[in-house]
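User: For my dataset I need records formatted as: sequence, then structure tokens, nothing else. Please produce one.
Assistant:
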Amino acid sequence: MKIIVSAGGTGGHLYPALALVEYIKTQDQDAEFLFVGTTDRLESQVVPQLGYEYRGLAVKGLVGNPIQKLKNAFIFIKSLKKSKQILKEFQPDIVIGFGGYPSASIVMAASQLKIPTMIHEQNSIIGLTNKVLIKKVNKIVCCYEKAYNEFPSDKTVLLGNPRASVVAHQKLKDIHDLYQIPPHRQTVVIVMGSLGSSSVNRVMKEALRQMQYDDYDVIYVTGKNYYDEMKNELGDLQDSIHLVSYIDDMPSLISSCDIIVSRAGATTLAEITALGAASIIIPSPYVVKNHQEYNAMELVNAKAARMILEKDLSAERFVKEVRELLKDQALLQSFKAHACQLGKPHACEDIYQEILKTLERK
């Protein structure tokens, strides 16, 4: 089987794509892959380093003033021609787009050449690229009910994020061992993405001073740019607060903490639900179409999490929410159980089977 995968711009698009490719390799050792993305974004560096064949398209998002949008539209049309050249050279059996504007070029070109196509939508709000491609593709895979209900029912399946499969089958460590925390103490992990959040950090400076650490520890991921500032501010609380700039094994912390406090990125929530963690979600308001709030609402409506909008976040509110959850074990366990019910730990397996079905109908 020969597969072209396109995932552009951000890790939220790229890492689910990589997870699916890694799984397919375990099922079909003869499978060949070609990644198509931008010439200058994350995927153009990460994918070649992993040893995959890679082709870059000089495309830009349809953003900016009207003149810039018009220029980018002409660039897109030019990228369609290059995409068709790539398709004719590689001769894929299927083209799978994971979002981001490079996906539009290669998936649309494949559709025009009658090559089977599939797109994957990680968020509850459909991204612009996938909206453009809805009528062009053979199959749509999504992760949330909201998106599922907006896609055409005859070609859409709700199978989840491939990252869920990775963490569900990963060998994980215990947070108590990782941070030398006594096993009887509860743990709260606070992480606002790899870069951290200056606005949330400002609130947390006060919140972490108000919290009572008689029976729990906090692991606070500051973000690399804010570590020194937070260390200077909270260093005197270091017996119960473990300040770190970055975490490279987030699934282990999610699986073994009592509460995870996080943003509502698609990959993060896929991991939280696959691992059955109780969460307090502070969605980022700085994302396209406020999609993180809608992602978070899927968990809140399923009684798997609590949500605090950043505009409503205060030290007092945060401390109250954490304390209530830690003190109510029945509620905590209920959140974890409901998160598990939302999880899609077999996402890779299910998407792979859907690929095979799509090719059978070719």
